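Progress narrative, Year 2. Work on DgyrCDS12172 from Dimorphilus gyrociliatus advanced from sequence curation to structure prediction during this period.
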Amino acid sequence: MAAELLEKLLLQILSGDNAHIYEISRQISKAIDTQEGVSALCSLLRHQNDGIRQYACILLRKCVAKEEKWHSMHCDIKSILRKDTIQLVCTENTKPVKKSLVALIGSIARFGVNEHDWPELMNFFHEACSNSAANIRELGMWVLSLVADYATDSLLPLMPTLISLCNERLKDAEPGILFYTIKQKKFRALIPEIIRVINKLIETDETMALESLEVFDDLFEYEVPIIQPFIGSIFELLFGIMNNQSLDESLRARAATYLSWIVKRKKKLVVKQKLMDSLLDAAMKIMGEVDPDDDDDENVLPRETAVLVLSMCNNLPSNQLMPAILERVEPMLASEDPIQRRTALITLALAVEGNSEYVRKRHLQSLMRVTSQAVNDTVQSVKNGAMFMLGQMCLCLQPDISNHASDIIPFLLSLIDPQKISGKLTSDSLRAHSKVFYAIETFCENMSQQKFSPYVESVTNTLLSVLQIPSLSDSVRTYVFSSLGAVSATAGKNLAPFVEKILHYLQSYFAPSVRSEEQIRSQAQAIETLSLIVRNVLGEDDRAIIEQSARIAFEIESTASDPDQRRAIHGLWASIAKCLKTSFPVGYLERVVQSMIIALNSQEGMNRPGKGMENTMSSLADLEKEIETMEEDYDDDELTDVENPYLDEKEDACINLADIAESTGPLFAPYLEKSFKIIRDLTKSNHMFVQKAAIESISKLAVAASKLGGDESSQNAVRVLCMEVVTCLTETINNQKEKTLVTTALSSYAYLIKNAGQILVGDQRITDTSLNLVRNVLRVKLPCQVIDLETEDDEEEEEDDELLLETAGEILPALAEHLDVDTFLSYFASLSTLFDKYMKSQNMNEEKAFAIGCIAESIETLGRKLEREGKTSANLEKLVLAAKDSFLSSASDNDTDVRNNAIYGLGLLVLYGNLGPAINQEIYSTLSSLLQNESNPRCKDQIVAALARVASKIGDCLPLDSVIKTIVSSLPLEDDPVENNTCVICLARICQRANSVLPHFEELAPVLPTFFENEDMNEEGKAAVIFLLNAMGKNNPTILESLHQQFPRLRKHLN
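Result:
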């Protein structure tokens, strides 16, 4: 009966009965959920209709896709299924049905393949693979290749027999047999023969050769130690393919992709065997074969080759690679061939990204000259290459390149030609202008507010002038909006005079009726730019604009169907909440939260291909994809990282929801529990950036909960929630292998301790956990820090290692804030041996800089705490004295980070250490001497701040007038603007004790009001500015009145 019903239903589908497809699908799903239904499907494998046989195969795969379904199946059905599939695959003549049968055999093989489990399968391998008929031998190797993928572990005991079979077949003359033989990715002893076979396939069938190269996917990813002896031979094979112009581009591109992997994981081999020069020559030659700016998807080879060059730049020693690159590009830049010039510029741009530190310190000036000349080239493609290079320099060579702002910004603005932008643009012209806007955006957004302030007017007016052009395309408007967003993020309050004009041009894209794809993209960018303006520029006086922005968000959200639109709107809501805080419109809040929760719960874009499809039988291909996904889920829990607007929306929804929770405080309380549960679940997401956002956000929600107050019962509930966050984060830190996620979890943990420590730190378990986390990072004991010696990968991702260390170091000052000073120092002493090791590091400047910085920050936290409490600590004085010699010697270190942190520490030693006159004078003399000789702007700023700390502590023992003059003349600090707080706080302290600052008021006066608009100023710094201004008013009312006229908003701050 079941067989007849299934036959009838499948025939309806095959006849194209789409009107009842959902009902038919439901009935089929219900039928095959029973033992009788599965048995019926087995009988349909012999049906005379090809379509029904194929559907039966695929539906049976669905029945065995999950382990629990297989184990619940009757033994008789399993036995019939195993016997019949082997028999039928040998007699089936219809290729699609045969393919489905082979896939079904592979699915069943996951549950056992040995003689006891499935004797028919092993007999089939022996008989088919040695059959005299080539088509049977090919079938045998086809089935074996699939079973090897599905049932690797089950095959391990049978390896000797199977390797012998495969070796025999590698001597075969038939390409199909060779192809399926080398697809046995798990039989590593075959690697030399695999290389030989691929070379043979290249001569006979490039399509098969391309597919055969996929054997290296798993080899490179998972079996590095096993392929170690063959890396040289594999490199030779791949290099030969990439360099062979007679081969298909897709084949050469795949070879370039695998070469990138070898360069990344086997850098020592590349250097030792002197492969770098030949790789570089070949790659640069290929990059010149096709225009890298060509948007044609078929031109994949130049892009993959560019990735190879970037991989070389990221992984090979800069002191060897950069001279080799410069040696090649110099004659190319002077060539009459524009392709040569453009290739040289693209190569340099990639070199800038991969060797930023080396370039920044040694070649910045020369590359600036190259770029200046190339952007004026007569050939547009060369100009595009120059603009790409300039954009990379703006992005990667900060902060040093900011010192060239007076040359770069006017030059970039001069490249915007209104006549060439108006009307409909050619693709070449649009591409050229996109690179100009990209360079402007990257340069502006990576500058400090202080350094950018002189250029706000010129950059903004130029961008606004573009928006005035009639018939300006949506694409160009999007570029301009994006650049204005970058300007607002950097300029902050300095952009206030232009807000009205900018909103005028954004307004036209705020209509809910926007329809075309290009308009939707422009609208999303317009909303994002508005969000940045609200967040960075507007304040309490701009409530009307903020409320108008809320109405805009509300109206557009009601019709928004595009994930980028929704993502931008969610960001705007978070910006509005940051401004309005507890004044956020309650009527909007429920709708806002619900919209973000829908995004967080949505499965759109969350699954790999095939997952989450409708459970219908209308498409064989869709059904097969669904089953493959079910089988992948059975085997594969790996993190994935793909570009997907739905995932971007989910990622930003996590962050924005947490930001709104923190901003709106008690207003968010009704939504806190539900939001927390959803985001907590996403900390286990298979998508890395969603998981990262959830890890970052979960602490913010806990901190928001901790600030709600309430009775003892409420506080206990918050404590439980915070402990749940601690557990989640520590599990990630202690088990996760992805370094980026561990770093995020450490940062999130430090944030939680810093901001909710009053609830947690009373629990000894939290103190122990915190110290163990730091200790494990310092001892390199975390899973993400494990070094695979076989891969020679000990130098990879040094920047990630440095960030991991720095982030772990943030936990200690956070903990110090909530523990008794002496208690904390007793714990800190248990880490002293590890810190000493890092302080004495001869090879790793990053480690030394970290240790010095971490000790200095802990001293500052403890010192400020004692100062607030009016106490002293002999143990802190011991720590200060122990750090003194290391800080003094490191203050003249060749590495700028080490030097900077040591100088920062020296000022703190004097401020909080009670070191005595002799040592204080020694530190002051050292700082004064360093200031005379220091060339690095950031270190110079740090010396000025250190002198300010020293002067505020021992001013009576110094030539105070000279020191104050040095401090005042250096303000505002541009390269380390946060230290402006230190300088004004220390000047205010000096002013409270003596009149030494009064003679310098006239020079100080024009600087002080600017600090109110500076995003780097904290509340204590602003209070110090107010104190100094009021003191100035008492001493010289004329100066203060003049400032009121010059800075109209000043009176608001002083009242």
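Confidence is low (pLDDT under 50) at residues 177-188, 606-618, 633-642, 788-796. The radius of gyration is 33 Å.
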